[in-house]
Structure formats: C-alpha cells, structure tokens
Amino acid sequence: MCSLTEKDRPIVQLLLNTGTCPRCILRFCHVGTQTLYRHPYKDLMKELEEFLRNNQEKEDRVCFDVVDPPCKRIRLEHTEGPDDPNHNGRLQQIPLVNDANTAVENSAVKVCNVCLGILQEFCETDFVKRVCQKVHSANYQFTSFVFSVSLPPQLSVREHAAWLLVKQEMGNLGLSLSKDDIVQLKEAFKWIIHPQLSEELGVPADGKSLFEVSVVFAHPETDGECHFLATACPDCFKPAKNKQSVFTRMAVLKALEKIKEEDFLKHFPCPPNSPKNLCDALEIQCNNGAIFVAGRYNKYSRNLPQTPWIIDGERKLDSSVEELISEHLMAEFKADSFNFSSSGREDVDVRTLGNGRPFAIELVNPRRIHFTSEEMKGLQQTINNSSDKIQVRDLQLVTRSAIGRMKEGEEEKTKTYSALIWIDKAIQKEDIAFLDDIKELKLDQKTPLRVLHRRPLAVRCRIIHTMKSEYIDEHHFRLHLKTQAGTYIKEFVHGDFGRTKPNIGSLLNRTADILELDVESVDVDWPPTLDN
Q: What whole-number distance in Å separates Cα of residue 25 and Cα of residue 3?
C-alpha cells in the first residue's frame, strides 16, 4: 500500500479504532489510486494491518517515504455520545489502540460508520451480479453505460463528523485536511464498480452514454440523523415540487457548509456511531436516453385532430394524427411514453396535403434503439398501411439538436393554403380578380374567439404575401394564399366579428365564410428528404 505515507499512520489507526472501513480510510488519506480501492476487502484489511505494524525506522520501511516526524500519541478518551453529560460541543475522545490486530478486528466485524456499508458489501461480486441481472432482464439495447448512484443524505452528515475528527488529529500533527481533499464516496464506489459492471455487461462505462444504470440506496436506521440541521439552518430546507422530503442531499450539504462546528458537535456524535445494519439497495433501475424520430405527415381527413381532442375530461373523437403515428413507433421502439411536436398545427377539419407537415416524436426510455434505414422504411410503410386518414414520409432517426431546426424562424416561415369561400351576394369573376394583384397585405389579428380559451388575448400582425382567386360560381370561389406562418386563415376570410382587419368580407364588401381549408405546403426544409 505504497500510496500511504507515515503522516497517514495516526489517521489510519484513529479511523480503524472508530469503526471506519478500509476504503473510507483510503478516502480520508486522499488516496487517488483507483486500483487500490478494487483490492478485495479482506486484502485491504491485511494491508492496513501490515502498514500499522511497520515500525517507523527507515530501514524497515520499504513502501513508505518519511515525510513528517513520527506522530504523537493520540490522547483521546472515550465517551458515549451526544446524550452523555460530558458531550458539550467537543469531539468525543477515542482511546488509542496500539495493537494493530485489535484495531483491524474491531473494524472488520462492523458496518462502516461513515459509508454505512456502501464500500463494503455493495462492492462485492454478488451485488454486481444482482445489478447485471436487472439490466439483462429489462431487455435494453445499449453499447455502453453510465452508472449513477443516489445515496442517503445522512451519509454527508456522517462524513462531516468523521472529517472533523480527522481534521483535529491532523491539526495535532501540525497538518491540515480540507474537505475537498477527501475522495468522494460516489467516486470511489464507481472506481470499484465500473470495471466489474463493464466485464459482466460486455460494454464500456462511458460518462456520455445514453443508457443509465442507477442504484438508489437507503438506510432507515439512520434516517433521522439529518433532522437537527433543519432547526440549526431552517433556510436551507425549503419544500420543493416532486421532492418527497426536504432533506435532499444538496440541502444537507448546504446546511453543513453553514453550520458552525461547535453547533454541529452539540447535536451529532463525532466520531459517528457504528450502525447495526447495512444500507438497502432500494431500487436498481435502467433508463435509455430518448430517441427522436422525424418525418412529414399528410392528413386527408376532415374529422381528425392533430392531437387527442379532449374537453372537460371527455374525448370528442376516437383518434388523432399523433396517435396514429406514435402507436407504431411506441411498439417498435418499446418506449415508455412519447412527446409529439410539429411545425404548426391544423384544425380538425383542415387537410394537410402536398409534401406534408414536418413532425418529430421523442420516444422516452426506449428498449430498442438500433434501426437500419430499411427498417425505418418498413416502419413507415406499416404506419401508412394502418390508416387511410394519414400518410407519413421521410421517416428517420434524428438528434435532439436537429429538432430545433423545425422550430427555427417559425414566425418567418411561409405556408400556402387553398380555401373554398362562400359569398352571400352574387359575384362575377371580375369582382374577385383584384385579389390576385394584392401583395404583402398586412393584417391585424386579435386572438380568435375560438382559441381564446387557450391562448392569451393579443393583436398579432401577420402578412398575406400573395393571393390567387379561382372563380367557381356566383356564390363560391377558391382562394390560394401564401402567408406568413401563424396567420389565422379562417378569420381572414370571415373577419371573426371584426377581430381580423382587413378580411375577405371587408375587401369584397360582402359577407364571406369559409367552407373548406387545405394546407398545401409548409415551407420548412426539414427533415431531409429521403428516397421513399
């Protein structure tokens, strides 16, 4: 154990005497050699025993460089805890155990008083196999993994107490120990676990991997150990949404930074007591990062909403564009859920023709992530064969960042429409011909009455770039429009009780209404066109 030096000897002895495991001792001695932590637990105990048995004479020290003079005897006396009459804000005093065998024996039979067993039982092969069994049973596709750990917040309190103890001993030697010098528990745990998981799973550990294996630890026996901090530092513990307890790890760390040492020592034993039980691994979970699928859809039905149409909890129509596409993607990717987005939306009675409307679907926690281009074509065909109400094209896997292109410049995009218009008074072809000559017509559109329940009241300036009329009969004509994205076409036709100015009715000095509307193109060059 060449990473330890003579100045570490009293710290090793002190922590062993108080019930700290060998891996936590390495952490407090600022040992950063990852391979040392991977040594079998029993071997580490033996190595610490040999280290303590070494006398301090130069000729007997093979692995250690003498950095400081021999340490002083630790003059500490044992007391029982914070309820002891003598516990008045001072560090508890620990008797020196000069016999290394006794120190190691005492530590070997106890659950570590700092890590609560995280760096003991949970670093063994049995636990690694338990994690891997969970991963394999979940049936995910992955080529690497990232391992995450959630630790009980009271571990931070115990580590703080142990740090105060070690800091005092270091001070006795004329040395200092910053909290930042201690190797983080999570970091040490991952040093040990990563190689074992990687070997069992057959893929490398990668901090940027989208496949996450997570373990949530708890220790019910010591759950209440954080509570005194809420009295000492109440401003650090604020109720938060989606948090079952105010005693989060970050809140506890914040309080530990704020609380004075003497106040901490009045409420918590230093060193921390040895627990009776190990931590529990409450949850072992797997999660794949989201996969994104994009394409364009055509909608041929005038009785199909883009997204589920539900009013006051009651479903109005059986299906939607979103559901007709996503149900097949969900089944093939074996995802938990999805999020649908698109470049604008059409009303339930509006068709989307031409090249279709760009859309993207985020598939949350998919089990399957690898699809060839041929498989994506097959999936597209499956969707198209399932319904005559919609068709999709250019179906492909995309990145999260690429989806931003669908939303970029949304107000500046143009869209073309075809509207079938009814006029109350008879018209001739020449009555509507002037519409073809109008360019860049500016509109002021108040939020339409039909969407006022879900959109804020505002006046929006929109532009009709061009119009082309197509006479049908005395009361009907078709109008082809190229407009700024976000223009309310129905309201431009009938005026929405004067909320859109000008409008077709006011331009023709007649009452106008819209009978049919089709989206003919959405001018967004995304996603890339494929050979379908």
A: 12
CA–CA distance, 75 with 158 (Å, rounded to integer): 23
31 and 117 together in one domain: yes
394 touches 505 (CB < 8 A): no
Question: How many angstroms from the chain centroid is the CA of residue 376?
Answer: 27
Nearest to 501 by CA among 465, 460, 440: 460
Same domain? For 336 and 366 the reply is yes
* 306 shares a domain with 219: no
Asked whether residue 32 is domain-assigned, the answer is yes
Is the pLDDT confidence value at 456 over 50?
yes
> In this predicted structure, what is the pLDDT of residue 87?
47
- Between strands 280-288 and 291-299, the pairing is unpaired
Residue 256 maps to a domain: no
Active-site residue flag, 347: yes
Tokens for 432? 């509507």
Are both 184 and 278 inside the same structural domain? yes
Q: Is residue 252 part of a domain?
A: no
- Residue 104 is which amino acid? V
Q: What is the CA radius of gyration of the chain?
A: 35
Do 30 and 144 have their domain in common? yes
Residue 456 structural domain: 415-522
pLDDT in tens, 268-320: 999 999 999 999 999 999 999 999 999 999 999 999 999 998 888 888 899 99
The reply to whether 404 and 469 lie within a common domain is no
Q: Which residue has the higher pLDDT, 78 or 400?
A: 400
Selection from 116, 163, 152, 111 nearest residue 268 by Cα: 163
User: What amino acid is encoded at 91 in this protein?
Assistant: L
Long-range contacts of 195-204 (CB under 8 A, 24+ apart): 195/38, 196/125, 196/128, 197/128, 197/131, 197/132, 197/145, 197/147, 198/145, 200/128, 200/129, 200/132, 201/132, 201/135, 201/145, 203/142, 203/143, 203/144, 203/145, 204/144, 204/145
> Are 392 and 440 contained in the same domain?
no
Asked if residue 332 belongs to a domain, the reply is yes
Q: pLDDT digit string (tens) for 211-254?
A: 999 999 999 999 999 999 999 999 998 887 767 788 888 999 99
Nearest-angstrom CA–CA distance, 92 and 266: 11
Q: Per the residue annotation, which of 347, 349, 436, 523 is the catalytic one? A: 347
How far is 223 from 78, CA to CA, in rounded Å? Answer: 25
When divided into structural domains, the chain yields a total of: 3
402-407, Cβ contacts within 8 angstroms, sequence gap of 24 or more: 402/292, 402/294, 402/526, 402/527, 403/292, 403/294, 403/341, 403/360, 405/526, 406/294, 406/341, 406/342, 406/343, 406/358, 406/360, 406/524, 406/526, 406/527, 407/341, 407/343
356 and 478 within one domain? no
Say what the pTM is: 0.81
Confidence of residue 399 (pLDDT cuts 50, 70, 90): very high
